[in-house]
Amino acid sequence: MSEVALLVEGLAAGYGPLKIVRGVSLACRPHELTVLLGRNGAGKTTTLSAIAGLIPTMEGTVSLFGTPQTGTTVDRVQAGVGLVQEGKRVFRARSVEDNLRLGGYSIRRTRGAISDGIDRAYERFPILKEKRRDVAGSLSGGQQQMLAIAQALMPQPTVLMLDEPSAGLAPAIVEQVFGEIASLAKDGLCVLLVEQLIDHSLAVADRVAVLDGGQITIDTDIASLDNLDRLRESYLGTSFTEAGSADGRERTPRT
Ligand code: ATP
Protein backbone atom coordinates (compact mmCIF):
# COMPACT_ATOMS: atom_id res chain seq x y z
CA MET A 1 0.00 0.00 0.00
CA SER A 2 1.43 3.40 -0.94
CA GLU A 3 2.46 6.17 1.39
CA VAL A 4 -0.29 8.35 2.88
CA ALA A 5 -0.54 11.65 1.02
CA LEU A 6 -3.11 13.43 3.18
CA LEU A 7 -3.40 12.57 6.85
CA VAL A 8 -6.03 14.27 8.97
CA GLU A 9 -5.93 13.42 12.67
CA GLY A 10 -8.45 14.51 15.29
CA LEU A 11 -9.46 17.59 13.33
CA ALA A 12 -11.88 20.03 14.92
CA ALA A 13 -12.95 23.10 12.97
CA GLY A 14 -15.80 25.55 12.73
CA TYR A 15 -16.69 29.19 12.65
CA GLY A 16 -15.84 31.65 15.43
CA PRO A 17 -16.33 29.72 18.67
CA LEU A 18 -18.70 27.22 16.99
CA LYS A 19 -17.16 23.78 16.54
CA ILE A 20 -18.83 22.13 13.52
CA VAL A 21 -16.63 19.03 13.09
CA ARG A 22 -14.58 17.25 15.76
CA GLY A 23 -12.30 14.27 15.92
CA VAL A 24 -12.21 13.91 12.14
CA SER A 25 -9.49 11.51 10.99
CA LEU A 26 -8.83 10.48 7.40
CA ALA A 27 -5.92 8.96 5.48
CA CYS A 28 -5.85 9.36 1.69
CA ARG A 29 -3.25 7.94 -0.67
CA PRO A 30 -1.95 8.68 -4.17
CA HIS A 31 -3.88 6.88 -6.93
CA GLU A 32 -6.87 6.74 -4.59
CA LEU A 33 -10.26 8.45 -4.76
CA THR A 34 -11.95 8.88 -1.39
CA VAL A 35 -15.53 10.07 -1.35
CA LEU A 36 -16.74 11.93 1.73
CA LEU A 37 -20.51 11.62 2.09
CA GLY A 38 -22.92 13.06 4.62
CA ARG A 39 -26.24 14.77 5.07
CA ASN A 40 -26.60 18.48 4.38
CA GLY A 41 -24.92 20.41 7.16
CA ALA A 42 -22.86 17.42 8.34
CA GLY A 43 -19.66 19.46 8.00
CA LYS A 44 -18.18 18.23 4.72
CA THR A 45 -17.38 21.69 3.34
CA THR A 46 -16.08 22.73 6.77
CA THR A 47 -13.70 19.74 6.74
CA LEU A 48 -12.36 20.59 3.26
CA SER A 49 -12.03 24.27 4.21
CA ALA A 50 -9.95 23.38 7.28
CA ILE A 51 -7.70 21.05 5.28
CA ALA A 52 -7.18 23.80 2.70
CA GLY A 53 -6.45 26.36 5.45
CA LEU A 54 -9.43 28.56 4.57
CA ILE A 55 -10.60 28.32 8.19
CA PRO A 56 -8.46 27.66 11.27
CA THR A 57 -7.87 24.23 12.73
CA MET A 58 -9.19 24.26 16.31
CA GLU A 59 -7.76 20.87 17.25
CA GLY A 60 -5.85 18.11 15.52
CA THR A 61 -3.47 18.10 12.58
CA VAL A 62 -3.42 18.06 8.79
CA SER A 63 -0.27 16.56 7.23
CA LEU A 64 0.89 16.18 3.68
CA PHE A 65 3.33 13.32 3.11
CA GLY A 66 4.22 13.49 6.79
CA THR A 67 4.67 17.28 6.96
CA PRO A 68 2.21 19.08 9.26
CA GLN A 69 0.38 21.91 7.49
CA THR A 70 0.02 24.94 9.72
CA GLY A 71 0.35 27.80 7.25
CA THR A 72 -2.01 29.88 5.14
CA THR A 73 -4.06 28.67 2.19
CA VAL A 74 -1.30 29.81 -0.19
CA ASP A 75 1.28 27.85 1.83
CA ARG A 76 -0.90 24.78 1.49
CA VAL A 77 -1.37 25.27 -2.26
CA GLN A 78 2.41 25.51 -2.51
CA ALA A 79 2.75 22.34 -0.43
CA GLY A 80 0.41 20.51 -2.85
CA VAL A 81 -3.16 20.90 -1.60
CA GLY A 82 -5.71 21.86 -4.26
CA LEU A 83 -9.39 22.64 -3.71
CA VAL A 84 -12.22 23.07 -6.22
CA GLN A 85 -14.83 24.88 -4.17
CA GLU A 86 -18.53 24.28 -4.72
CA GLY A 87 -20.13 26.77 -7.05
CA LYS A 88 -17.01 28.98 -7.29
CA ARG A 89 -16.30 27.95 -10.80
CA VAL A 90 -14.39 30.43 -12.90
CA PHE A 91 -13.78 34.09 -13.71
CA ARG A 92 -16.63 34.35 -16.18
CA ALA A 93 -15.51 37.54 -17.93
CA ARG A 94 -11.96 36.28 -18.54
CA SER A 95 -10.88 33.94 -21.32
CA VAL A 96 -10.37 30.23 -20.71
CA GLU A 97 -6.61 30.69 -21.04
CA ASP A 98 -6.58 33.64 -18.63
CA ASN A 99 -8.40 31.49 -16.10
CA LEU A 100 -5.71 28.84 -16.37
CA ARG A 101 -2.98 31.46 -16.10
CA LEU A 102 -4.61 32.85 -12.95
CA GLY A 103 -4.57 29.35 -11.45
CA GLY A 104 -0.79 29.32 -11.92
CA TYR A 105 -0.24 32.86 -10.64
CA SER A 106 -1.80 31.93 -7.32
CA ILE A 107 1.56 30.52 -6.30
CA ARG A 108 3.75 32.80 -8.44
CA ARG A 109 4.87 30.18 -10.94
CA THR A 110 7.36 31.23 -13.59
CA ARG A 111 6.12 32.01 -17.09
CA GLY A 112 7.58 28.72 -18.38
CA ALA A 113 5.90 26.68 -15.65
CA ILE A 114 2.59 28.38 -16.38
CA SER A 115 2.75 27.66 -20.10
CA ASP A 116 3.69 24.03 -19.36
CA GLY A 117 0.68 23.86 -17.04
CA ILE A 118 -1.57 25.28 -19.74
CA ASP A 119 -0.26 22.66 -22.21
CA ARG A 120 -1.03 19.91 -19.68
CA ALA A 121 -4.53 21.32 -19.14
CA TYR A 122 -5.19 21.30 -22.89
CA GLU A 123 -3.92 17.76 -23.19
CA ARG A 124 -6.26 16.59 -20.43
CA PHE A 125 -9.23 18.71 -21.51
CA PRO A 126 -9.03 19.22 -25.32
CA ILE A 127 -12.30 21.19 -25.30
CA LEU A 128 -10.54 23.91 -23.28
CA LYS A 129 -7.93 24.26 -26.02
CA GLU A 130 -10.67 24.61 -28.59
CA LYS A 131 -12.30 27.34 -26.49
CA ARG A 132 -9.13 28.94 -25.17
CA ARG A 133 -9.96 32.44 -26.43
CA ASP A 134 -13.64 32.33 -25.43
CA VAL A 135 -14.78 33.99 -22.22
CA ALA A 136 -15.32 31.39 -19.52
CA GLY A 137 -18.90 32.59 -18.96
CA SER A 138 -19.81 31.40 -22.45
CA LEU A 139 -18.86 27.76 -21.67
CA SER A 140 -21.46 25.17 -20.68
CA GLY A 141 -21.78 24.23 -17.00
CA GLY A 142 -19.78 21.03 -17.53
CA GLN A 143 -17.05 22.85 -19.43
CA GLN A 144 -16.84 25.46 -16.67
CA GLN A 145 -16.43 22.67 -14.13
CA MET A 146 -13.60 21.16 -16.24
CA LEU A 147 -12.00 24.62 -16.35
CA ALA A 148 -12.32 24.98 -12.56
CA ILE A 149 -10.61 21.60 -12.15
CA ALA A 150 -7.92 22.49 -14.70
CA GLN A 151 -7.33 25.76 -12.84
CA ALA A 152 -6.88 23.90 -9.53
CA LEU A 153 -4.40 21.57 -11.27
CA MET A 154 -2.18 24.45 -12.45
CA PRO A 155 -0.04 24.49 -9.26
CA GLN A 156 0.40 20.70 -9.69
CA PRO A 157 -1.22 19.54 -6.43
CA THR A 158 -0.60 16.10 -4.99
CA VAL A 159 -3.94 16.17 -3.17
CA LEU A 160 -7.02 17.47 -4.95
CA MET A 161 -10.24 18.08 -3.04
CA LEU A 162 -13.48 18.72 -4.88
CA ASP A 163 -16.63 20.02 -3.18
CA GLU A 164 -19.77 18.80 -4.94
CA PRO A 165 -18.50 19.11 -8.51
CA SER A 166 -21.83 17.74 -9.75
CA ALA A 167 -23.85 20.60 -8.24
CA GLY A 168 -26.12 22.15 -10.83
CA LEU A 169 -24.96 19.94 -13.69
CA ALA A 170 -27.25 17.90 -15.96
CA PRO A 171 -26.98 14.09 -15.41
CA ALA A 172 -25.22 13.38 -18.73
CA ILE A 173 -22.54 15.95 -17.90
CA VAL A 174 -22.11 14.59 -14.38
CA GLU A 175 -20.97 11.23 -15.83
CA GLN A 176 -18.32 13.01 -17.87
CA VAL A 177 -17.07 15.13 -14.96
CA PHE A 178 -16.89 12.07 -12.68
CA GLY A 179 -14.97 10.22 -15.40
CA GLU A 180 -12.41 13.03 -15.47
CA ILE A 181 -12.13 13.05 -11.67
CA ALA A 182 -11.61 9.27 -11.61
CA SER A 183 -8.87 9.56 -14.22
CA LEU A 184 -7.04 12.12 -12.05
CA ALA A 185 -6.81 9.52 -9.29
CA LYS A 186 -5.76 6.81 -11.76
CA ASP A 187 -2.96 9.10 -12.93
CA GLY A 188 -1.62 9.35 -9.38
CA LEU A 189 -3.39 12.15 -7.56
CA CYS A 190 -4.85 11.65 -4.11
CA VAL A 191 -8.47 12.77 -4.62
CA LEU A 192 -10.91 13.68 -1.83
CA LEU A 193 -14.39 14.16 -3.25
CA VAL A 194 -17.36 15.56 -1.35
CA GLU A 195 -20.59 14.59 -3.06
CA GLN A 196 -24.35 14.35 -2.75
CA LEU A 197 -24.69 11.85 -5.60
CA ILE A 198 -24.03 8.66 -3.68
CA ASP A 199 -24.32 6.11 -6.49
CA HIS A 200 -22.27 8.13 -8.96
CA SER A 201 -19.55 8.70 -6.42
CA LEU A 202 -19.41 5.14 -5.12
CA ALA A 203 -19.06 3.98 -8.74
CA VAL A 204 -15.72 5.78 -9.04
CA ALA A 205 -14.47 5.74 -5.42
CA ASP A 206 -11.80 3.50 -3.88
CA ARG A 207 -12.73 4.51 -0.32
CA VAL A 208 -15.79 5.97 1.33
CA ALA A 209 -16.00 8.03 4.50
CA VAL A 210 -19.22 9.30 6.06
CA LEU A 211 -19.55 12.40 8.22
CA ASP A 212 -22.49 12.42 10.59
CA GLY A 213 -23.05 15.00 13.29
CA GLY A 214 -19.60 16.44 12.70
CA GLN A 215 -17.80 13.10 13.13
CA ILE A 216 -16.59 10.32 10.82
CA THR A 217 -18.90 7.34 11.37
CA ILE A 218 -17.77 5.13 8.48
CA ASP A 219 -14.35 4.91 6.83
CA THR A 220 -13.80 1.91 4.62
CA ASP A 221 -12.55 0.79 1.24
CA ILE A 222 -15.28 0.20 -1.30
CA ALA A 223 -14.62 -3.53 -1.51
CA SER A 224 -15.48 -3.88 2.20
CA LEU A 225 -18.67 -1.85 1.91
CA ASP A 226 -21.14 -4.70 2.14
CA ASN A 227 -24.31 -2.91 3.11
CA LEU A 228 -25.02 0.08 0.95
CA ASP A 229 -28.65 0.30 2.09
CA ARG A 230 -27.59 0.57 5.70
CA LEU A 231 -25.14 3.31 4.79
CA ARG A 232 -27.83 5.13 2.86
CA GLU A 233 -30.50 4.86 5.54
CA SER A 234 -28.48 5.21 8.72
CA TYR A 235 -26.12 7.93 7.77
CA LEU A 236 -27.41 9.76 4.75
CA GLY A 237 -31.17 9.91 5.36
CA THR A 238 -33.80 7.70 3.77
CA SER A 239 -34.88 10.38 1.31
CA PHE A 240 -31.33 10.79 0.07
CA THR A 241 -31.49 10.08 -3.66
CA GLU A 242 -29.56 10.82 -6.79
CA ALA A 243 -32.26 13.30 -7.79
CA GLY A 244 -32.10 15.38 -4.66
CA SER A 245 -30.62 15.70 -1.24
CA ALA A 246 -31.63 14.77 2.26
CA ASP A 247 -33.35 18.08 2.90
CA GLY A 248 -34.96 18.21 -0.53
CA ARG A 249 -32.79 21.15 -1.59
CA GLU A 250 -33.46 21.85 -5.22
CA ARG A 251 -30.69 22.09 -7.74
CA THR A 252 -31.00 23.70 -11.12
CA PRO A 253 -29.44 21.47 -13.78
CA ARG A 254 -27.12 23.19 -16.21
CA THR A 255 -26.08 21.81 -19.54
P1 ATP B 1 -23.96 20.83 2.49
O1 ATP B 1 -24.06 19.51 1.85
O2 ATP B 1 -25.27 21.46 2.78
O3 ATP B 1 -22.99 21.77 1.82
P2 ATP B 1 -21.94 20.25 4.49
O4 ATP B 1 -21.88 18.87 5.03
O5 ATP B 1 -20.92 20.65 3.50
O6 ATP B 1 -23.40 20.52 3.96
P3 ATP B 1 -21.08 22.56 5.95
O7 ATP B 1 -21.29 23.48 4.78
O8 ATP B 1 -19.71 22.23 6.36
O9 ATP B 1 -21.88 21.20 5.74
O10 ATP B 1 -21.89 23.19 7.16
C1 ATP B 1 -21.93 22.57 8.44
C2 ATP B 1 -22.60 23.51 9.40
O11 ATP B 1 -21.81 24.69 9.53
C3 ATP B 1 -24.00 23.95 8.97
O12 ATP B 1 -24.82 23.93 10.11
C4 ATP B 1 -23.79 25.35 8.48
O13 ATP B 1 -24.94 26.14 8.72
C5 ATP B 1 -22.62 25.84 9.34
N1 ATP B 1 -21.84 26.86 8.64
C6 ATP B 1 -21.32 26.74 7.39
N2 ATP B 1 -20.62 27.84 7.07
C7 ATP B 1 -20.71 28.67 8.14
C8 ATP B 1 -20.21 29.99 8.44
N3 ATP B 1 -19.45 30.67 7.55
N4 ATP B 1 -20.51 30.53 9.64
C9 ATP B 1 -21.25 29.84 10.56
N5 ATP B 1 -21.76 28.60 10.34
C10 ATP B 1 -21.50 28.03 9.16
Structural overview:
By secondary structure, the protein is an alpha/beta fold. The chain is globular, with a radius of gyration of 18 Å. 35% of the residues lie in helices and 25% in strands. It has nine helices and ten strands. The protein has two domains: 6-80 and 157-253, P-loop containing nucleotide triphosphate hydrolases (Rossmann fold), CATH 3.40.50.300; 90-152, no CATH class. The structure holds adenosine-5'-triphosphate. Residues 15, 20, 38, 40-46 line the site of adenosine-5'-triphosphate.
Keywords:
255 residues; alpha/beta; Rossmann fold
Topology (elements, then pairings):
Elements: E1 6-15, E2 18-28, E3 32-38, H1 44-52, E4 57-64, E5 67-68, H2 73-79, E6 81-84, H3 96-105, H4 111-124, H5 126-130, H6 141-153, E7 159-163, H7 171-186, E8 190-194, H8 198-204, E9 207-212, E10 215-221, H9 228-235
Parallel strand pairs: 3-8, 3-9, 6-7, 7-8
Antiparallel strand pairs: 1-2, 1-4, 4-5, 9-10
Bound molecules: adenosine-5'-triphosphate.
* Multimeric organization: single chain
- Please state the structural category: alpha/beta
CATH level 1 class label of the largest domain: Alpha Beta
Radius of gyration: 18 Å
Name the shape in a single word.
globular
Order of secondary-structure elements = EEEHEEHEHHHHEHEHEEH
The main sheet comes to: 6 strands, mixed
CATH superfamily heading of the largest domain: P-loop containing nucleotide triphosphate hydrolases
Count of distinct structural domains: 2
Strand content: 25-35%
Low-confidence stretches: 238-255
How many helices in DSSP terms? 9
Q: What is the CATH architecture assignment of the largest domain?
A: 3-Layer(aba) Sandwich
What percentage of residues falls in helices of 4 or more residues?
25-40%
Provide the list of bound ligands, each named once.
adenosine-5'-triphosphate
Distance from N terminus to C terminus (CA atoms, Å) equals: 39 Å
> If you consult CATH, what is the topology of the largest domain?
Rossmann fold
Mean pLDDT equals: 87
* Count of distinct strands: 10
